[in-house]
Amino acid sequence: MDRSNPSSRRRGSHGKKQDPDVHLSKCLSYALRHGAVNLGLPMGTDGFVPVSSLLLLPQFRTFSQVDIERVVSCNDKQRFTLRYSYADGALEIRANQGHSLQVEVELTPLGEELPNQAIHGTYFRHWPSIQQRGLSRMNRTHIHLCTELPGEGQECISGMRRDCEVAIFIDLPKAVADGLLFFWSSNRVLLTPGNADGLLLPKYFLRALQLRPQRQMIPLEYSRDKET
């Protein structure tokens, strides 16, 4: 399936048309996080792209600037930022995190005050590999973490999909003490590039929780006793 053409995914598994705003959000996510170069978009080093350039692409032909402004303002995960260009006053848009492209997004170092918990959400199909290798940033620039489980508070705006099946709790103090870097994105996602190999190793896993169909603890294969 061609990821550069989200319209090929517009219909769901039951042949139902996708909500236009959801479709637009997916088109924006691909273009701004991964596809700007392939799509020929003029992206700045800070990740901003002129809205007018986006609207010239075929996958955006049924949308307008008003549609983009609405999707950005109503997006519950605050995935995007709009601004007016300092140079010419044109409206520009950027994804707040999740890039595979190298962009200079403003990130705030974690600092000395650590959140009470740091959690990564994943799926059962990935869990065996994660237990062995750790969490990987893969083709992105950071591993994404949130500070609450979805639905349990106001902090988890983004950073974990609501349909995740496994929550991995990270020993943040230990990871920080070992020299791993952590940052806040503008929409309060906790980000880390991991180690030199782009990994957050299993030794930093405190526990794992099955989220669905019912919540229960999952045994960890890595024993923290190995370090003592």
Automatic annotation (TrEMBL):
Keywords noted in UniProt: NAD, Transferase
InterPro entries given in the database record: Ptrans_KptA/Tpt1, RNA_2'-PTrans_C, RNA_2'-PTrans_N
Record bears the keyword Cell inner membrane: no
Family indicated by similarity: Belongs to the KptA/TPT1 family.
Recorded catalytic activity of this chain's protein: 2'-phospho-[ligated tRNA] + NAD(+) = mature tRNA + ADP-alpha-D-ribose 1'',2''-cyclic phosphate + nicotinamide
Domain of life: Eukaryota
Protein name: 2'-phosphotransferase
EC code(s) of this entry: 2.7.1.160
GO terms of biological process kind: tRNA splicing, via endonucleolytic cleavage and ligation
SUPFAM superfamilies assigned to the protein according to its UniProt record, in alphabetical order: ADP-ribosylation
Annotated region described as Disordered, given as residue ranges: 1-21
Gene source species: Xenopus tropicalis
GO MF terms, alphabetically ordered: tRNA 2'-phosphotransferase activity
Role: Catalyzes the last step of tRNA splicing, the transfer of the splice junction 2'-phosphate from ligated tRNA to NAD to produce ADP-ribose 1''-2'' cyclic phosphate.
Entries under Pfam families matching the protein: PTS_2-RNA (PF01885)
Keyword NAD: yes
